[in-house]
Structures are given as C-alpha cells and as structure tokens.
Amino acid sequence: MRFVIGVDPGSSKVGLALLDGEGRLIKRRIVARSEAASEIACLAANKHATIALGNGTTAKQLVSEIRAALKDGGSVDIVMVDEMNSTLEGRTNYLTDNRPKGLAALIPMGLRSPKRHWDDYVAEVIARRYLGCDELGEE
Q1: Positive or negative, the Cα torsion across 110, 116, 120, 124?
Q2: Is the pLDDT of residue 89 over 80?
Q3: Beta-carbon contacts of residue 105 (< 8 Å; ≥ 6 apart)
Q4: Confidence of residue 138 (pLDDT cuts 50, 70, 90)
Q5: Orientation angle between helical segments 119-131 and 86-97, nearest 10 degrees
Q6: In a domain? residue 137
Q7: Does some domain include residue 139?
Q8: Residue numbers of the domain that contains 23
Q9: N-terminal to C-terminal alpha carbon distance within the chain
Q10: For 14-25, what is each residue's pLDDT tens digit?
C-alpha cells in the first residue's frame, strides 16, 4: 500500500498528515520546526511514503533537512505541491470538524476563531492535492 505524508512547512512549526493511497487519513499532527525533518524522514522510511511538501517559503530548506535526516542516504520521493489557499482550506476543514454546539453554533464560520493551530489540517489538504482527491477523500 502506498502512503503520502502531507507537509505544511513553517518557520516555527510544521503540519504533518499521513494518508493512505486511497486518501484516508491515518493521522495528523503539528511538530516543532526543529524536530520536523527527523520526524518526516523516520515516518517516510517506515511507511515507504511519498512526501508531498507544500511549496511555501521554507520548503527548499526543509527538503535539504529531510534528505540529511534520512538514514543511509535513503531515497524518498519528495514532491512539491502548490499550497495556494491551502491555509484557508485547512482552517475551514478544522472549523467544520470542530463545530460548536448550542448558541455558539449560530456564529458564522468566518467569524469563528480556531482554538488551536490548524497546520495539520493544511498538511492534509496538501496531501490530498498530491493524490488528486477532493476534501472528502474520494477520487
């Protein structure tokens, strides 16, 4: 089975999402930038996964760090993915998954403030773009 690691690179934190080849989410998380390369390299090596990396401003540096973190110079495919509007899409997905209950549900989505960072949701968007899946994980 093929796996994809979606990566939303940032200067202080990095969003990660692991999806199977069918677009099913396995896990999402946010890691510190200082831990990202080793975490991604380890996950990619263990799952024999392709890395779908958002093409943001710190992406090229992260590619170098991942390559350096791979044991024995292991080869892993790293594919740059256009991340235009992925932050907005990730925020929307986060807010949809975490809908408030009661009177708070009446607040329009555009006026809601997420309770935490949503970089992991952005990473999922990037992985789905690589796979060519829509937001529901369907081809």
Answers
A1: negative
A2: yes
A3: 99
A4: very low
A5: 110
A6: no
A7: no
A8: 3-131
A9: 16
A10: 999 999 988 999
Residues 57 and 86 sit within 8 Å (Cβ to Cβ) = no
Residue 136 has pLDDT above 50, yes or no: no
Q: Inform me whether the pLDDT recorded for 99 exceeds 50.
A: yes
In a domain, 127, yes or no: yes
Look up the CATH number of the domain holding residue 96: 3.30.420.140
Q: Nearest Cα to 56, choosing from 110, 97, 11?
A: 11
Query: Between 135 and 35, whose confidence is greater?
Result: 35
Q: Strand, coil or helix: what is 129?
A: helix
* pLDDT band at residue 96 using 50, 70 and 90 as cut-offs: confident
Which is nearest to 14 in space by CA: 62, 74, 65? 62
Among 41, 64, 61, which residue's Cα sits nearest to residue 51? 41
What's at 32, amino acid-wise? A
The number of folded domains in the chain is 1
Q: What is the pLDDT of residue 74?
A: 67
Work out the number of other CB atoms within 10 angstroms of the CB of residue 93: 17
Task: Let me know if residue 136 belongs to a domain.
Answer: no
